[in-house]
Structure formats: C-alpha cells, structure tokens
Design brief:
By secondary structure, this protein is α+β, with helices and mostly antiparallel strands. The chain is built from 3 helices and 5 strands, in the order αβββαββα.
Length: 139
Amino acid sequence: MSDTIFSKIIAGEIPCHKVYEDDQVLAFLDIHPISEGHTLIIPKEAAATIDALSDEASAAIGKALPRIARAVMQVSGCEHYNILQNNGVPAHQAVFHVHFHIIPKHADGSGLGIGWKSRDFDHGKGAEMARAMAAAIGG
C-alpha cells in the first residue's frame, strides 16, 4: 500500500489534533469537517479497505469507537451522530487507508445528509444470499 496522508499522520510526519491513541488506533479531528466535532478513527495497520483489515485491528477499532463517540457527544454537545466508513472510489472513499468518521448531527442541521433509496426485497433471493454469505464466512 502506498503512503497516504493517514500513514504520514501515524508516522508523525504530518501533525493532527489527536483525540485518542493506543497501540493500534489513532483518532483525530477531521480538518475538513462536515460539522463541529467531526472525528476520524484509523487503525495503525495499513489497509485500504475494511475487508483487508486484520481481525485484531478491527477489534481494536470496535473497542475504541464507542468511547470516542461518547467523547464527541460530550464535547461537541450533539445528541445524535453518524458513523461513516467508505470502501472504494464508487463508495466515495478518498483516502485509501481504512477510516471511520464520527460526524455529529447538530440542532443547526449541520452533519451528514443521506439520501436513502430503499428497494423491494425478494425473500427467496435473500435466503440464497444469506446462505452463500454464511458459507463464505465459514458459518
């Protein structure tokens, strides 16, 4: 994987406004925030997309996310927030190092806006897909 702005932040080559750090995770304020308190959480392990991330790094992110979300809420004053994680260019990923956004939704309307266009669900195809996914996971 090539150097990214996040790998340079982890290496200390680029400064950040650090919110949290442990052996496997770094969290810092986004310098292009959608709303006040917008925070990024990244694994220190280099992986472009979540499917390439190790179970250990994923578990470390999962352990840190709730604690960081509580701090974002407490300090920014938001009661609501989105957690966003994109994988690949068509899914709007711009930095090819796994990262999660905690984006506060404030009373002034700032925060993430999402257009959710749900589709009809075919239960037969759904059952087939669920079986195939379970087999792919090993379940």
